[in-house]
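To illustrate the input format used throughout this study, we show a single complete record. The first block contains the structure-token representation of the backbone; no residue identities are included at this stage. The design step must infer an amino acid for every position from geometry alone.
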């Protein structure tokens, strides 16, 4: 089985922003939205919004736009947020703590069921409503009912080892916040998040603005 290649990745990354705006509009009592209004909110061309939304399969109404409740459900279905997803988080440091404190994950269907760390000062304590378990016990604790996703917030030196343990438990989806590329079997999917990558993008945009040199970046 070859590596999974997802097309339209910029579109996928925009979907949560659309959803955030739509949920706020629904809360305000709005029933319909136009692609132009979403484009102004996102600061992108309206045709980009139309193409993005078209991928979900929804059909808008001329001069009326999209029904907000319906569009919310189409977007949630498109990005796979209609069914709950269970996860375990390894690494209860600053980043892991921040992830546990992000309340919107529950709205998106992500349920972090367990938290592990190797720091004896943290093991046994409670963090954001979760008891922190010893990572050495991960096999015995998760073997009977492994979650769908493993979230890695560990050091670069231990990321591969922890990933191997998760894979051995049958976990096929890994959200990797370590700054290394993991080596995994072909049937395992890794989403790597590089925080420095976002900083690099911002710095390139700053450089482009200050030098007045367009760099043709894809949003």
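Output of the design step:
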């Amino acid at each position: 089985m070859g590596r999974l290649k997802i097309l339209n990745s910029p579109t996928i990354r925009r979907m949560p922003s659309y959803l955030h705006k739509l949920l706020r509009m629904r809360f305000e009592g709005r029933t319909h939205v136009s692609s132009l209004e979403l484009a102004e909110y996102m600061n992108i061309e309206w045709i980009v919004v139309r193409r993005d939304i078209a991928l979900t399969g929804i059909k808008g109404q001329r001069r009326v736009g999209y029904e907000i409740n319906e569009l919310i459900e189409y977007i949630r279905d498109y990005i796979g947020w209609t069914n709950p997803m269970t996860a375990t988080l390894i690494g209860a440091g600053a980043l892991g703590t921040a992830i546990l404190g992000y309340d919107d994950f529950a709205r998106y269907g992500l349920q972090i069921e367990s938290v592990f760390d190797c720091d004896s000062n943290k093991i046994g304590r409670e963090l954001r409503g979760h008891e922190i378990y010893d990572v050495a016990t991960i096999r015995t604790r998760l073997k009977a009912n492994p979650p769908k996703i493993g979230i890695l917030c560990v050091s670069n030196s231990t990321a591969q080892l922890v990933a191997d343990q998760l894979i051995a438990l049958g976990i096929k989806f890994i959200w990797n916040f370590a700054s290394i590329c993991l080596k995994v079997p072909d049937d395992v999917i890794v989403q790597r998040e590089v925080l420095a990558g976002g900083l690099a993008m911002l710095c390139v945009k700053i450089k482009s603005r200050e030098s007045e040199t367009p760099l043709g970046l894809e949003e």
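Structural context for interpreting the output: The domain at 85-196 is CATH 3.40.50.720 (Rossmann fold). Residues 9-27 form the longest helix (19 residues).
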